[in-house]
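Lay summary

Proteins are chains of building blocks that fold into shapes. Our project writes down both the chain and a compact code for its shape. Here are two examples, one after the other.
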Amino acid sequence: MTAPLPSPRTGRAAVAAGVLLFASVAAELLRPVQTADGFLTDVAGFVVYLAAWTLGAGCLVVALSGLRDATSSRAGRVGRWISLAGAALFTAFGVVALGTAVLAGEPAEWSFLLFAVGLLLLVVGSVPFALGLRHALPGRWVAVLVAGAGAAVALLVEPDPWHDLGLFAFDGAWIALGLGLLTRSAQTAATRRPERSTV
């Protein structure tokens, strides 16, 4: 028995997650709002970047939730739950950092612990989760491994530009997975569509 194909909503959520997370990091690189020691120079800009991050992380939660039935092994399901917890912590980081930046003019330092632990969980969960997707998503499951590798680089290599490049790899992999899911959904829908009579 084959696993059911994830819905187009899951593909759209994966693409949105990658795009919004990428945009948040890229915007901060192009127009920095913090000094080297973390002091905010533009609270409004920081709020915009964090809003994009929080929305992207929320979309990642939706995408991971939508891949529930695509995992074909117990290890894959455990990996998905670990990854889902990581995405939830990404979202919590965005909410806490955004709220404290608005209220106090700077994000709470402990909010970055949520980010770091979330990143760690996304690394740990990526391998069993990806392997659990092999049967349902042939070829496309590799994107989850790439996302995990990018998260590992972002977590373990702090100096720029490697940290940001790792995050970009993570984001790009989710965009690729989402586009792959949408393409497959469209192809499946086309094959199931009855041919119109030419009479």
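And here is the second example, written the same way.
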Amino acid sequence: MASTGLSTFLHSELDEETGSYKTPAKMAGAIDFKEALDRNDAKLYADNQLQDSDTSVTGGKITLTVDDDDDVIFAPILGEFVEKITVDEKQYDKVVSKTNDEPKSQGFGFITKKNGGKYRVTFYPKVKFTRGDEEAKTAEDKTEYTKPTVEGTLYPVNDVYKEKVTVDSVEEAKKVLYSLFGKTQNDSE
């Protein structure tokens, strides 16, 4: 079924000891999403015929294009830290990125609007995100936006790397998405 919309990028830190998530929060405005799965590609031939094959998923990557890579939101996800600096008696957030930053495991999900009025909730139980390469461009005679990207590595949890649920309304989709984090929508509002 074709998609006609993308929304509601939610994330939540995964407590790997308990398998539970903190309260989900909006990551950023959703512009684009891409999934690239890693698969086994093993074939077994015997007596001149294909007898068996293994094309199972071993992990993968997701790439998110967002409207705003707000440092205060993304720094904790990426294992960076935020400290305060004061300049002329005004405080600012300073994000410090180190070579040994270790991203925190996150649950991640979103909603796509499907052709025919349905909504699909997609949820990844464990992702570690890294910041995409930064780019900027001078202003020209026509407005052009640069769009930040964030990349994530997928990790299966008990052999599950992705969950999908299709529902009839966006309201149901939001409730289902929160439930996949083990929460109710009211927990985050």
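What can we say about the second shape? The chain has a mean pLDDT of 90.
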